[in-house]
Design a protein that fits this description.
Low-confidence stretches: none
Distance between the termini: 60 Å
Number of helices: 11
GO molecular function, one term: potassium channel activity
Main location: membrane
Strand order of the largest sheet: 1-2
Pfam family, one: Ion_trans
Mean pLDDT: 77
Number of domains: 3
Helix content: 55-70%
Strand content: under 5%
Subcellular location: Membrane
CATH architecture of the largest domain: Up-down Bundle
Membrane topology: Multi-pass membrane protein
Radius of gyration: 22 Å
Order of helices and strands: HHHHHHHHHHHEE
CATH topology of the largest domain: Four Helix Bundle (Hemerythrin (Met), subunit A)
Length: 257
């Protein structure tokens, strides 16, 4: 019985069946709903209905987390992974909000890992033409948005109790964007050495991800062009032959590569 249950969970979390893909889409949707809930409730005063929804989300995350641990081949290794630790932090914040208020945003780290799995990426290519045509741009944009969101959440969690300039996610997001773009209006600042280090990290990593997005938008390392012979769809920007089958490819360029 236990073996059958374990096989079912493994099939759902790691399999390639239509049922498994629907299940992972459902998890992705739940993760995004969780993130929206965390952001929206940061603008509201504490209330009983928020605490009850916290508990509901916490129980669902606990069920998902328990299933993942149960099906893991190397459980101790799994429990020390960054994405697992992020899930634990989110779980604590929902089940015991006073002990970890506002940490639910860390769940988006698991969402990012889910988006980068081979099975889901293949499914997204199959299900959505737009994703297939613009995969590099979409992935680079998702990486940048996740960085902005996680950084905003961290700044909010660290500062909203002590910094009167950061009262909600909108204030934290405003600081993150102005710091990332090096605009720095100066109306919101993080105090002390810790705050300066956070600001430096936002600028350093954020600008790197922003430049990566600009690169895939304007000067991609690979271009998408379906080879009529073998179907290979990623080629060097200046390629004249398909590396897989040798067929001549005529990739349109602006002459600047």
């Amino acid at each position: 019985m236990a073996t059958g249950f374990s096989d079912t969970l493994n099939a759902l979390y790691e399999g390639n069946s239509p049922r498994a893909h629907r299940f992972r889409y459902a998890i992705l949707t739940f993760d995004l709903i969780t993130i929206c809930f965390v952001v929206c409730t940061s603008f509201l005063a504490p209330a009983m209905w928020i605490e009850r929804l916290d508990l509901v989300f916490g129980v669902l995350i606990l069920i998902d987390f328990s299933a993942r641990v149960y099906t893991a081949d190397r459980r101790m290794w799994y429990l020390t992974r960054p994405s697992t630790l992020a899930d634990i932090a989110a779980l604590i914040s929902f089940l015991a909000p006073l002990a970890g208020e506002g940490l639910g945003f860390l769940r988006i780290l698991r969402t990012l890992r889910l988006l980068h799995t081979y099975q889901l990426m293949n499914r997204l290519r199959h299900d959505f033409v737009v994703f297939r045509k613009h995969e590099d741009v979409i992935v680079a944009l998702i990486n940048l948005l996740v960085f902005i969101f996680v950084t905003t959440g961290l700044i909010y969690a660290l500062e909203h109790n002590d910094n009167p300039a950061i009262r909600n996610y909108a204030d934290a997001l405003y600081f993150t964007i102005t710091t990332l773009t090096t605009t720095g209006f100066g109306d919101i600042t993080l105090e002390g050495t810790k705050g300066r280090m956070v600001s430096i990290a936002v600028m350093f990593f954020g600008v790197t991800l922003f430049l990566r997005l600009a690169q895939v938008l304007f000067r991609p390392a690979k271009v998408r062009f379906d080879c009529a012979t073998c179907g290979l769809f990623l080629h060097d920007a200046d390629a004249i032959h398909c590396k897989h089958c040798g067929e001549t490819v005529r990739i349109g360029t602006d002459g600047l590569y």
